Amino acid sequence: MHSRSVHWFRHDLRLRDNQALAAAAEADELIALFVLDDALLEGCRSGAPRVRFLLASLEQLAKDLEARGSRLVVRRGDPASEVARLLDETKADRLCFGRSYAPAALRRDERVRAVATKRGVRVVETRDHVVFESRDVLSQQDRPFAVFTPYRRAWLRAFEAEPQIPLRAPKLPPTPAGVDSLPLPPPPASPIELPVAGEAAAARRLSRFLERSVADYARSRDFPAEDATSRLSPHLRFGTISARSCVHLAREIAAIDPKAAKGANKWIDELLWREFYCAILKENPHVTRSSHRSEYDAIEWNDDEEGFRAWCEGRTGYPIVDAGMRQLATTGWMHNRVRMIAASFLTKDLLVDWRRGEEFFYRSLVDGDPASNNGGWQWAASTGTDAQPYFRIFNPVSQGERFDPAGRYVRRFVPELEDVDDRFVQRPWEAPSPPRDYPAPIVSHHERRIQALRRYEAARERGGRP
Question: Which positions are annotated as active-site residues?
Fold first, then answer.
């Protein structure tokens, strides 16, 4: 019997190691679909860097499909309505897609599943965004984990028991004749120079990282002036590379090169944090709106528009914070160590609600991911699972002096400090001649640290925590 399937691309914009695509490719004919959802392109949390990278990834995906005798069918509108319309037009008998885990995506997928089932279409869902889902890695009490370290141990045991081998790109059947497609829209204008999009670019970046940088990764990953990280987060966000491929190749390197093993395993840990935050979001959807630890919903936050605006614009007077915010503004990306410092400064020094920073980052980042962004912000704000203890508050000066001692990173993004002596580059207000065009600190870290401790302690008392 002649079969026809639809593969619905979402955050899996690749041909290799795509289980849902491989399932769809078993049919006699294949429609490779992407639905341009206005919530993604123009919603209140959409951002130009992320939309530009998405559209560039789709453009490359379309070329990759054409090179294999297929083509990308683009529709625009509500995904459930557009999938229903395509199923009616093509009489496809199978719909395949990789599972999503954010609350809004789960609601969307339920509506799509319903319209397919109503038409008698078989729905095939696969595990392609992560290596293991939340219910694949459980405690001895068969519960999802809320703390990273035991989660990591259980994840690694699960991987040893069930190694995840990436799939090759499948042979693609032809697209049925007469299926209409829209052109991809032009990307939004932006001066930001984004990384090269597409599956081939992601594979090159991974190879370069594993060959050149991973051996020293455990030491160098925290120093933002060094080009020491994989920079694969945008590709993992949109699935131009799979987490399975990253783990698989990192383990291969660790096995054949003892000198690289420590760095490769540390990088795998960072991939596991991504999996952990995805599991937390799936099991605790309330974290998109409130603190994972409910007692911290009682924190008294400052209504400080001027401080928040200074933080957004990179003019707080604390060089490592300002360098990070300016890196974000000019590149759509920020080094992870600096993300933690900037988030800590907003929540613990300015005492501004973490949700405001989380939303600003999400709109500004090319790799803005619902789970990782939320998890990172709640970690820094000490409101989340397995979070930074509330009484450990990053000192932006000592963090800068520890991880950017010569000010190489700071000077790159804060040129006002170019001529400041290394001794004062992270505390320029103490220099014999402070730079005139760089602001003094907008708050005293010492004073705000004391205020933050009092407010967190008060919230814990109200919430019944010792």
Answer: 270, 273, 301, 336, 354, 377
